[in-house]
Amino acid sequence: MLTELGHYALILATCIAAAQVIFGFWGAQRRHLAVMQAADQATLVTFALVVLAFAALMQAYIVSDFSLRTVWQNSHQDKPLIYRIAGTWGNHEGSLLLWTLILTLFSACLVLAGRGLPTTLKARVLGVQGVIALGFLSFMVLTSNPFLRQATLPIDGEGLNPLLQDIGLALHPPMLYLGYVGFSMAFSFAVAALIEGRVDPAWGRWVRPWTLTAWVFLTAGITLGSWWAYYELGWGGWWFWDPVENVSFMPWLSGTALLHCAIVVEKRDAMKVWTILFAVLTFSLSLVGTFIVRSGLLTSVHAFAVDPERGRYILMLLALSIGGSLGLFAIRAPIFKPGGIFAPISREGALLINNILLAIAAAIVFYGTLWPLVVEAMSGQKITVAGPFYDRTFVPIMVPVVILMGIGPFLTWKRADAGAVAQRLGLVLGITTLVVIAVLFLRRGGAWLPYVGIGLAVWLITAAAVEWLDRVGVWKGRFAGLGRRILRTPNAAHGMSLAHAGLGIAIIGMVGSTSWSLETITAMAPGDTADLGQHCVRFNGVNQAQGPNYSAQVGDLTVLRNCQNDWLALAPEKRAYPVRAMGTTEAAIISRWNGDYYVALGDEQDGKRVVRAYFRAYVPWIWLGGIVMVIGGLFSLSDRRLRLGIPRRVQAPAKGATGSPALATAKVDGGAA
Prior knowledge:
The chain is an alpha+beta fold. It has helices spanning about 1-30, 35-60, 70-75, 80-85, 90-115, 120-145, 165-195, 200-230, 245-270, 270-295, 310-330, 345-380, 385-405, 420-445, 450-470, 480-490, 490-515, 620-635, 655-660, and strands at about 520-525, 530, 535-545, 550-560, 565-570, 575, 580-585, 590, 595-605, 610-615, 650, 665-670.
């Protein structure tokens, strides 16, 4: 019964989303207050119906209702409850429903929290959100129905892909979707602004919290996915430039640029066209990722569908949304005035250069991701664009980005004093030089590129720390009242420093794990040892274990300090899932401040067991850096200036309230900015 109710809710939500579109655009065009308020109500009803549909699908997974085709294909009675719940979105149909749930959630939040918005702007934003929701809801109803019944009732299900039966993958998709779909709000605000022909500091203040929220979740999702790939796949890597990994990285790059553009619009009433363009491109890249993952173009553990018919439908939605928004941008962008004027040496100038570089970086990743697909479609030849391509193209672009990230916070708006900035950066450069010399001495030479990377990371961390200390008055010797000044410093300033430092911490992990890691891959009998730098790894044997829906071979290994004394015990596993007839490799990892001891168990060969043992230098710093960036984003998001004192346009009563079609607009300050 609940399944049918969920199916009906999905169909009804499609109809209500269409009403949301009509009420939003028509009400805003006619300045009719009652119709615009109807758009608010339609938005809330659509969200409630999608919640009902999602709850019905989740309940089917929890109780193992194998009469539903998607439950039969992706679940099993013996699977632990947490993975039965995660199976709701671990498939094509369920992931689309989760995507739509988050989309309607953001729209509902706008209705409930957007009372300070101009009524017509909010109505148009809801109209654009409704168009996106209508596209995805119709896609599910017409081609990807999650409530599709089977003619016969199977005894049990086929189970979920074992690689997805992990807590990291249970949380990774919702985090990513909150990021992907969160950028739809910036996209909708941009399209609404193009229609109205108005972008001002108030608009920048309204867009910024939504953009920041999406950026935080996308950063968390990428970090979580990288961590999962590191410990679950058994090869000890944290990034492989996999096309499906790239589709989350592209909107992150453009979304970072969008976030900084929105700040410039808010603070200086400048870079309006850039902000609109990045808002359109960021969400467009999110939609491109949806197309790639669900079109059958790629075969990956991340990919959900291999049905070209579904791909054609998504491609049509893609063409309408991206083509329509870019066409509107081409027509309407010239009407926006440039806004605040600024000198080349200024904070705006640094942000502009960085945004151009980030756009180029996103274009490089876009090219590397899609070019193999284009070549295969045109010639049938399969090619791979892997790490060496990005090392030669992407990395050099990011070097000046990191340098400018250290310089930018020291620059003032409009025009900066180059001499004063150079004086303050001298300390940063001195500390960076000393740290690089110390690392060079401790590592005893080697290739020079890793030290450049460490230097960039230390530059960024030191610059963030020095700028923060300068902001709270420490460099000026003002220790009295320091705690009060820290508390009075805007949370956005704390967040910026944390986010920049977090990226520097992550760069240390990336450079260290890439350049200074150790590994040994060998066949070992019980009692054999293998060298791992100054330490050794001893293989003691293999034990058998039984899990809830798998059997496992558990390795018994010991790391010997200086190849003499027992130090660390490691127990990697090889699991076999009989339902899916698949296996997984569960690495054993022990983390230290300077790296991970990482062991994965391989196959048996001539009475010996293949063992992959690694020391991954500084790799925990990658996850630490991601966490610090997320915390920095949350700090910025908690800034009271994003909730209070938002300048808003006060509107005269609209037609639905007074009968007058006129809508006068004035700008007032709702509080201190």
